[in-house]
Amino acid sequence: MRKAALHNLGCKVNAYETEAMQEMLEKNGYEIVPFAEEADVYVINTCTVTNMADRKSRQMLHRARKMNPDAVVVAAGCYVQARGAEADDCIDIIIGNNRKKDIVTILDNYFRERESGRGESGQEAQIELLDIAHTHDYETLRLSRQAEHTRANVKVQDGCNQFCSYCIIPYARGRVRSREKSDVIKEVQKLAANGYQEVVLTGIHLSSYGVDTGENLLSLIRAVHQVEGIVRIRLGSLEPRIITREFAEAIAALPKMCPHFHLSLQSGCNETLQRMNRRYTAEEYYEKCELLREVFDNPALTTDVIVGFPGETEAEFEASRKFIDKVNFYETHIFKYSKRQGTKAAEMKNQVPEQEKTRRSNVLLELGRNKKRAYEERLIGKRAEVLMEEQMIRDGEVWQVGHTKEYVKVGRKCEENLTNQLINVEIENRLQIID
Question: Could you tell me the pTM of the whole model?
């Protein structure tokens, strides 16, 4: 029996695909071992969203080669889709996006070639890439279980048609492709039967779900809401434009819907947004946030912000900072602009020095910490429904820990294992909110 070890880098979509590949390998006779152990096959599902992601992808590939020089090192996903044969010389097999479903067959063929003597040591990597820009088929991957035992990510969409000027992902993931609604429901039903109570609908550009199939995200949410055994539905990252009154009121009427919304912002300055090719203004974005707060009681709003985008002046940064302060996000994820070869932003003038990016990042990180703490402290003295997910030892005492519907991590002292139970918890003090 061959041993396989897998490592994921990047987003929830990547995490889903990594677990799907692991399940396929396991069903086909591979023994799955931790990545730190010696294996016959190492699969790294790579990411290319930033220069740091590229670097981490290369590091993990080299680490795999070092752990077992005779192992088959497989590089899958966005980094190798974007870089192709130029990716790295320590790779044996390159598997691009929309080919992960074929991993077992690809490995079988590789081992057959090697064992017959036709595959030689030191040969060039076997490359399995599609022309992702012209792929219209959704890659069907399925999961019946995941590493988490209470919450399951469900990939429902791939690709992006937006072409933000800083983003390489449309070139690595291709155009929008949506999963058939019936197939999504079958997977959710299987996950519910296996004990999962919460699902997170995720995609590369989730708001575009159904534009290629005649469906839409709202119809999918309503269908998932009907699945018995699922008690919570959470959404991945959304574009602000999907938040219409009709959409907001419709999902607010669904009891299983979690009031936790990640709306991509990137900048609170209109001039910067325009250079980014983001298709909304700061004013429009603010209206969407206020609409969600109108129809939901104290929703948790989270976002992403890029600092140091080409041409971002001090005045533009200050406009963005003031806007972020005004919105009052629960969490703000800050990224320093990363130049991606092949994107329009990489060729823009007035690139911001790295030192200045770091300064601006630190300013927003501090603002984000203060806003997060303020949101959490408003929960003190209130009761919250918590889906318990794990036990932890804290100051020598046993705590049960999970997340509220707003995705605030909350714990309570309790010896009894409450994993995968919905518990009403009174948040009496700050200690119960786990950072």
Answer: 0.93
- One-letter identity of residue 407: Y
Q: What span, in angstroms and rounded, lies between the C-alpha atoms of 430 and 377?
A: 7
Mean pLDDT by runs of 10 across the 435 residues of the chain is: 96 96 96 96 96 93 94 95 77 94 96 74 73 88 87 97 96 96 97 96 98 97 98 97 98 98 98 98 98 97 98 98 98 96 94 97 98 96 96 93 97 94 95 90
Q: What are the counts of helices (DSSP H) followed by strands (DSSP E) for the chain?
A: 12, 17
- Residues 346 and 360: their CA atoms lie apart, in Å, by 20
| CA 176/CA 153 separation, integer angstroms | 19
Cα distance between the two ends of the chain = 42
pLDDT at 278: 97
Handedness of CA 351, 47, 9, 394 (dihedral sign): positive
Q: Buried (b) or exposed (e) across 58-86, using 16+ Cβ within 10 A?
A: bebbebbbebbeebbbbbbbbbbbbbeee
Q: Give Cβ neighbours of residue 115 (< 8 Å, ≥ 6 apart).
A: none
Distance CA 117, CA 115 (A): 5
At residue 124, the pLDDT reads: 66
CA dihedral (213, 217, 222, 226) positive or negative? positive
DSSP label of 353: P
Please report where in the chains the tokens 């910490």 appear, as a residue.
369
Q: Are 323 and 282 in contact (CB under 8 A)?
A: yes
75 is written with which tokens? 């590089």
